[in-house]
Amino acid sequence: MRYQITGKQIDIGEALQTHVKTELGGVIEKYAGRPTDAQVTFSKSAHEFVCESTVHLSTGLTATAKAKATEIYAAFDAASEKMEKQLRRYKRRLKNHHQERSQPVELSGASSYILAAESEGDEPDTLAPMIVAEMETKIPSLSVGEAVMQMELAGAPVLVFKNEKGGGVNVVYRRDDGNVGWIDPAAST
In what order do the strands lie in the sheet with 48-57? Predict the structure, then answer.
């Protein structure tokens, strides 16, 4: 497994890198079969250290965790606990559904845009939104259950995916009432 351990405007020592590889490696080995890589980024926000970790699994799913603490090791340990909880839930769901994905998740290319916020009160010159950033992104081909699991693992409010059964682009999202919504355009026509 590949590790990428970095610090944003802070120095990451060899001891911290060894601690991250040992602890995170133990968590991943316990709950995930074949992880491909892990990225851990440390930064400082005011008086707290922030640890953001992302683990890519061979199934194509991604688990992320973020934690803050006044000490850098405590921040990593808190993020590691969150990661362990996510991976434990993921493994339990796989066992409960009695399905093993034999092939990795298929990814399709797409464009992702970040649009500029409109200023209050001013009428725009054109109706076209101003694009601040354009990036390449991947749309995974998943079942609805896997899409919900991926959304929860990533901690995201919404996930766009290609439905394995229908082949169309679908959306799952977290509703205000706490439930998960599913938009399937193919079923509505």
Answer: 2-7, 35-45, 48-57, 62-69
Q: Quick check: 51 and 7 in contact, CB under 8 A?
A: no
**Confidence (pTM):** 0.59
CATH topology classification for 106-188: SHC Adaptor Protein (3.30.505)
How confident is residue 155, by pLDDT bands cut at 50, 70 and 90? confident
pLDDT of the residue at 67? 93
Q: Which fold has domain 2-97?
A: Double Stranded RNA Binding Domain (3.30.160)
Query: What gap in Å lies between CA 35 and CA 32, rounded to an integer?
Result: 6
pLDDT at residue 100 in the model: 54
Tokens, residue 69: 């603490």
Tell me the C-alpha distance between 132 and 147, whole Å: 28
Nearest to 8 by CA among 51, 37, 38: 51
